[in-house]
Design goal:
Layout: H1 8-13, H2 15-22, H3 26-38, H4 43-58, H5 64-79, H6 104-115, E1 118-122, E2 129-132, E3 138-141, E4 146-150, E5 159-170, E6 186-189, E7 193-197, E8 201-207, E9 210-217, E10 220-224, E11 233-235, E12 239-244, E13 249-254, E14 267-274, H7 275-286, E15 289-292, H8 295-298, E16 301-307, H9 314-322, E17 324-329, E18 332-337
Helix pairs in contact: 2-4, 2-5, 4-6
Amino acid sequence: MANQKISVEQLAADEHFQRWVLSPTPELEKYWNKWAEEHPEHKPKLNQAKQLLLNLRLKSDTSPVDLQQDVWNKIKPILGENKRSISRNWSVRTRVSIAASLTAVVAASILFFVFSATTTHRTAYAETKEITLPDGSIATLNANSSLRFAEDWESADVREVWLEGEAFFDIRQILLSDDGNVRLPFVVHSQNMDVEVLGTTFNVKDRQEYSEVVLNTGKVNVIPRMEQQTAPIAMTPGDRLAYSASEQEWKIQQINPEIPTAWRHQELIFDEMRLDKIAQLLEDVYGYEISFESAEIQSYAFTGNIKTDEVEMLIPMLERSFDIKIQQDGRTLSFAKK
């Protein structure tokens, strides 16, 4: 299918594609990730179509299912033909161009993603980076993470960034009315959620099958992307909102927000943290591969702190704390009882 003409709009109108973007499942993730690998020439359009749907959802109060139907209702009269699934009917060559005929909101979204220049920042393992956003807000990117945003926000009605990994945000308030009641929104998009902000400091983590928002100051609304939870979740300072794919639910609790965000001050603080959680952090942030001899060792809880650039000191600390042996071979660690 390398020579087939596929537009951003056709991808966005495809029901199978919409379900992947708006109500993802492991099967859909596997299918579309494989498709992207097999058709690298279409990957930019795939990303543009995905962001188009997410942008439409952000501006809509409808559920993912209703939004899928709404997108199709807008496009169907323009196509003038029956539904066709790109993902299931590759032999059909679409001959109708629909870009110029989309509704104003759809067209505006497409133009934004196709023609806006974007900037992407990435960090390597064990690296952090402070980024000044176009509005003067500050994002501190944790290790093994990336942040993408449009270069010019002057004409935008919403400030948006796309995050993979973890970042701490200090958002500048922009007032749109003299009385201060209307402010320019700021939205962080990630795999499992959208975080809507007006002006605040908060941390967003989105790694593998775990997503988390920690609110230090101000107020945010988190919009889950799961079909079973579509209502925004309001957070207040000190809240930690977490989602685990294995548990398929969102949990919110009050914590000391300075503990999970201490990394931005080059410190890691562990407060009764299980070793399997510490292992996940070492894998995500420092690139280790870790195994455990038993589930019992995984459940051990550790309290302590280290500097982020002295993580190798954590190994003897854990060995002494739990009388265990940690075998190291390069970036591979094996935890076992003595």
